[in-house]
Amino acid sequence: MSFPGSYASEDVSFLLRRLPMPDFVEVAEKERLIQSGRRHYSEMLSPESAPSSRYMALFDAACRANNGRMARDCLRLAGLIAAKGTAAPAVVSLARAGTPVGVVVARLLRQVFRREAAHYSVSIVRDRGIDTAALRHILAAGHAPESVVFVDGWTGKGVIARELAVSVGAFNAAQRTRIDPGLHVLSDLAGAAACAASCEDYLIPSSILNATVSGLVSRTVMDAAMGPDDFHGCVFYEQLAPHDRSRAFADALTGLALEQAPAGAGAADASGARQRSQAFIAQARAKYDVADVNLIKPGIGEATRVLLRRVPRLLVLRDPAAPEVAHLMALAEEKNVPVECDPALPYHAVSLIRSASDA
């Protein structure tokens, strides 16, 4: 049932059902359906195409500028997980932004910290929770509940961290297990993670690509055919294989991390990040007259996903000339998205999604 995507089999097991190519929903129609309440976002996929050569040049520049920092944070996160004392952690990354991080962290747990780490990638969906069939599969494979460690790339507003806490709590109550629902991330902008290497908004290079840096796997789907014992679904984009950077990206990060090993330092203090996030969201809702908080996406990673997958209303940048947001400027130009400069912005970037009532 599991498969490794385009990674090596020892790097990850995606606990997802491979679905046939669906009837894709164009981005504008998907936005209308989501905001009208007629469809949940997890029920639809929009098509993905190969990134342009211009965009890949920006990805390569992001890697040159930030892979060292991302590698250091992966090493720090692996060290924090190792410090928990579990001899054989089961790293469970949240598909798909968490998958590249999980691949590297699991490698470092094995190679630097001498832990017998396994790595699974599973689906979690806002408002619908973690894939409980996948969690049961992990436990049935012999992993102790206390060995499970959830990993993702970053937090934006903390929605997924809270979803994880609620849904894993419900799973524990139903199954009489004690899985720690805490989320482990590289960058915790919301101050919502249990453990983070950093709370700063920086350009995590994998955040600016989709399937081609995440094992050629689509965003996860909860389709109508899914039964109670089925994993959530995904599409495997084999046609994008010539453009795939998944293994090369993980290899580069692993090599940089090994050069820096061993890692020290404790987890980032999330209290300041939490206060900053709450204050910003309140200010942004008032300033931009946003009724639905889900339409505000703070941080480089979340802002990028809006421009790639949603219908943007506005891109707000602290410094439009900063190299960290060059890819966002390119996407905004390509999609005719207005750009506003706010030097007081507490993040490099924030995207606002267009309300369907304004379309």
Summarize the structure.
By secondary structure, this protein is of the alpha/beta class. It has helices spanning 27-36, 53-82, 99-111, 132-140, 159-175, 246-260, 271-288, 300-309, 326-335; strands at residues 13-14, 17-18, 90-94, 118-122, 124-125, 129-130, 148-155, 183-188, 195-198, 233-234, 296-298, 312-317, 339-341, 349-353.
Number of helices: 9
- Number of separate structural domains: 2
Oligomer: single chain
Strands of the biggest beta sheet: in what spatial order?
1-4-3-7-8-9
Approximately how much beta-strand content do the residues carry? Answer: 15-25%
The level of helicity is 25-40%
Shape: globular
Structural class: alpha/beta
Distance between the termini: 41 Å
Name the average pLDDT: 94
Report low-confidence residues grouped into runs of 5 or more: none
User: What is the gyration radius calculated from CA atoms?
Assistant: 19 Å
Give me the count of strands.
14
Order of helices and strands: EEHHEHEEEHEHEEEHHEHEHEE
* Main sheet summary: 6 strands, parallel
